[in-house]
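User: Hi! Is it possible to get a structure for several chains at once, not just one? Here's what I have:
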Amino acid sequence: MKVKYELIKKDEKARYGILHTNHGSYETPMFMPVGTLATVKTMSFDEIKETKAGVILSNTYHLHLRPGEDLIAKAGGLHSFMNWDGPILTDSGGFQVFSLARPKDISEDGVKFKSHLDGRNLFLTPEKSIEIQNKLDSDIAMVLDECPPYPATYDYMKNSIERTFRWAKRCLEAHKNENQSLFGIVQGGEFAELRKISAEYTTSLPFDGFAVGGVSVGEGQNTKIKMVELATPYLPEDKVRYLMGVGEPIDMLESIERGIDIFDCVLSTRIARHGNFFTRKGRVSIKNARFKEDFTALEENCDCYACKHHTKAYIRHLLVANEMYGMRLLSIHNTRFLIKMMEEVREAIKNNNFKDYKNNFIKNYKKSII
Amino acid sequence: MKVKYELIKKDEKARYGILHTNHGSYETPMFMPVGTLATVKTMSFDEIKETKAGVILSNTYHLHLRPGEDLIAKAGGLHSFMNWDGPILTDSGGFQVFSLARPKDISEDGVKFKSHLDGRNLFLTPEKSIEIQNKLDSDIAMVLDECPPYPATYDYMKNSIERTFRWAKRCLEAHKNENQSLFGIVQGGEFAELRKISAEYTTSLPFDGFAVGGVSVGEGQNTKIKMVELATPYLPEDKVRYLMGVGEPIDMLESIERGIDIFDCVLSTRIARHGNFFTRKGRVSIKNARFKEDFTALEENCDCYACKHHTKAYIRHLLVANEMYGMRLLSIHNTRFLIKMMEEVREAIKNNNFKDYKNNFIKNYKKSII
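Assistant: Yes, the chains can be modeled jointly so their relative placement is included. Here is the combined structure:
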């Protein structure tokens, strides 16, 4: 079965819906934790379940290099390999190839690059990306798109979206896994006309959902939100809309307001490993000396494992001493924080007060580390 | 209340008993996982409970440096600080001072040393060690002993056990925590006469239990077991006997045969972080290429979380990619392995067939990495 998006309720452009997958049905808006290498770093899958996560994301590029899609296929696919019975979305590998692997050489056929691990030469084409994702057997696969540099000129971007469109058609052609959905990606940078063209191109093809790409590399919040705003009006109401690589609370709220349904980002777990955690007041460093004798939870009223079991003073000690259990506790807290926020967002949309919720959240939340 | 040891059954010299503490009663022989910095590395306290651990150990030296005993006292003691409701044993700090912190300068008063973290000058005396442990509020504190180098001459060792005896008396004098037990330590290296003298000295004092020290630094299994054998005959039957720093399966079996009740060692969790795990056949490296496509559990019939949830192929992938979740899974497995082994040992003693159990275990178990 392909995923199905059921739109239940709108509050202006903000959407409350349900994403039906082969591994359960999940409400949107939704934040998807990232399990790069078939593990959401430091966390067990029971802990991921406890955060109430729905879909989790895994990275095709990383899994292609280690342990390889053939091994995962032998294990019975990615669900079975990592023992996760919820849905999985895999990216195309394109973003990592364009950001991690250098030098690279892009042609109509695909992109030549060197592995960031051992420098060996590799070649990713639309067909290859789909073949890998078919073998991984994720619930949702993504087309290979060109991830243009930011900023890019209008001409560069125009050529790029044309190529991305041709690649999208090749992905559809190559896609063989009947149980796997395939999502198209709208690019076009910050150019209104190109976002529109790219959206029209992409939505002309029979994809099961649509992503807005190229936003996470944008500089500054205004640019990012503008890119979202330029793309969403052209996306069909009956398909799920995915904003790739964005997981900063305010960016997500602004994007939900513009009609986005699902998000992924490594931010929540990456900052955790460096000792930072989300609160309603903003992002905080647990290493701050003011927490040395703070025997309260990371955040009052938080229902995550870390907040139910340990104090700031203890978790601070763990991070100062570079102890993995501390990184794990903050990863759990941050993941639960974003998922809890999405629960509230859904409630707000259902009650027609998303805008109030958003404004109130933003009023209390400082973007810089506090 | 002080801990009480209840001897229930002997099978030759091997002892089955119960250690009663302020935080529950636990059967012996027992393996105690090590939570150096108030965390058993990578594991949650629920996971430690799931391995059926009883007492866990924490290190006074490490906690004195980070986060400091005063902070832990403010948190309400170590149980409360780390949120562990089982019993805790703290060492004296001596072992780390003698092994980690250099240069050191031993006098009758105590030992001057430099922190291994920042080089600051510190001074550990018997009184200071007890004061720190009183504040940590562990269930069991250890006396500060001199940990002599191995090998040491007879004369050096003779002077050392005399000093250790004088330090033991000072520790008893300084000990003020009515709810905390204090254990004495028998030293004496590999010298039969000195082990006897040290045991007689130590057991002449009103300690709540007795440890055999200086064994983990011994070279070779024969030397270690000899040291145990030289000390245990002089230890009273009605007190628990603790072999410090030994956690290799065969060493533990040999020591149980000679009358030891409790053990601690970082081995099980340290080797886990390097990708090694215990099996009935011996210690194994998960990184071995032969596990690449092995979709079975680490060990058949193991009831640990790792074995119930994940395959060798998956855990191998995690370790190869340096993922913390893999280190955590192996830490859980190794801890459970040793504790499960102790469950079997206790059954064997109760059934008067410890010797068969031990011989059978050793026959199947290779000491080198297989």
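The CA atoms of residues 280 and 361 of chain A lie 7 Å apart. Chain A touches chain B through 36 residues (CB under 8 Å).

User: Great, thank you!
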